[in-house]
Amino acid sequence: MSNYSGPTGEQHGSGGMNDVPWKDLTLKDLAGPLRALRTLAAEFPDLPAVDVQVSPIYPDSLELTLHDDLSAFETWREALGIAAETVTYHEQGFSGTTVRLEGSTEVAGATVRLRGFAPVVRPAATGDPVKAAAV
Question: Residue ranges of region Disordered (predicted)?
Fold first, then answer.
């Protein structure tokens, strides 16, 4: 397995595409996140479908993303055993119009990153954000 942990300076303009450490990786180098995906598909076949990403840029990670359905995020969070208190909450977009929840865990030797995106719900009278996950 690769020990590469993410983008380096070469990917941010200090070198060409031939300098990036992930260019020589093979499919074998993605075995960890692919094994994690296979494990999740076998253990949780009835969970909501997610956007799945496996990338040579992060060869030890599997990313699962849900859009506009934070109840599905919660279903996945519970199934993966990610503690609720470790999930991060961020607002992004113009004037904080989108909520982003993120949590991670290890599955079959790979880091699984779970992300959920949804519109922020704000009460009209106060303008205070309400975490969409609680709505």
Answer: 1-20
